[in-house]
Amino acid sequence: MQKKPVYKPPFKPGANRPKPGPRPMRGRREDLHRINQKIVDTPTVRVVGEGVEAGGIFPISKAMEMAFEEGLDLVEISPNAEPPVCRIVDYKKYLFEQKKKQKELKANAVNNEVKEIRFGPNTDEHDVDFKLNHARKFLNEGSKVRAYVFFKGRTIVYKERGEVLLLKFAEKLQEEGVAKLELMPKTEGKKMFMLLAPAKKK
Q1: pLDDT tens sequence across 102-153
Q2: pTM of the model
Q3: How far apart are CA 84 and CA 94, in angstroms?
Q4: How far is C-alpha 139 from the chain's CA centre?
Q5: For residue 151, with 0-12 CB atoms within 10 Å meaning exposed, 13-18 middle and 19 or more buried, which class applies?
Q6: Is pLDDT at 68 greater than 60 in this prediction?
Q7: Element (H, E) at 170
Q8: 198 by DSSP, 3-state: which?
Q9: Full DSSP string of 78-135
Q10: Domains along the chain?
């Protein structure tokens, strides 16, 4: 009678098991760019920076020497260019300026965002107050507000009522100093809309 094969674990208890591979490293600030001696595999680089001839191409050793003479860093900013582009700059200051630019771009993206607030032609005063709170929040965050009345079915006959509703809505926000009317109520299909922008703070 044939014996059944005995299962053997791939590792004996207590035996040295293979160590797991290295964990992916989180992005460190110094890993964002290659700087100084970390710039390898390129005999020449195009150097930019204050006091440097525009677009000058130098051997990598000469470029490093130029940076060190100024007490600055040689930072690779365009590794895929031919030859790679490096900037002579204080690297910490460069990172700070890049971070500042990103914040500004993010702030501009928020300012360009348009939030929508919908009404019906028969929206009651309580709902209007509720939507006013939302509009204030959006405007104070720097977003524009597109308020519109949607006319469903036969309610299209109440266009004048919708226009009055929108203008009163805008008037309240303007009186509070949080909004300015950028576009008067305008009809498109079954919608009448207006555009409000954040008021400039004095």
Answers
A1: 877 776 665 567 899 999 888 888 888 999 999 999 998 888 999 999 888 7
A2: 0.45
A3: 18
A4: 19
A5: buried
A6: yes
A7: helix 159-175
A8: strand
A9: ETTSSSPEEEEE-HHHHHHHHHHHHHHHHHHHHHT-EEEEEE-TT--HHHHHHHHHHH
A10: 30-107 (3.10.20.80), 113-198 (3.30.110.10)
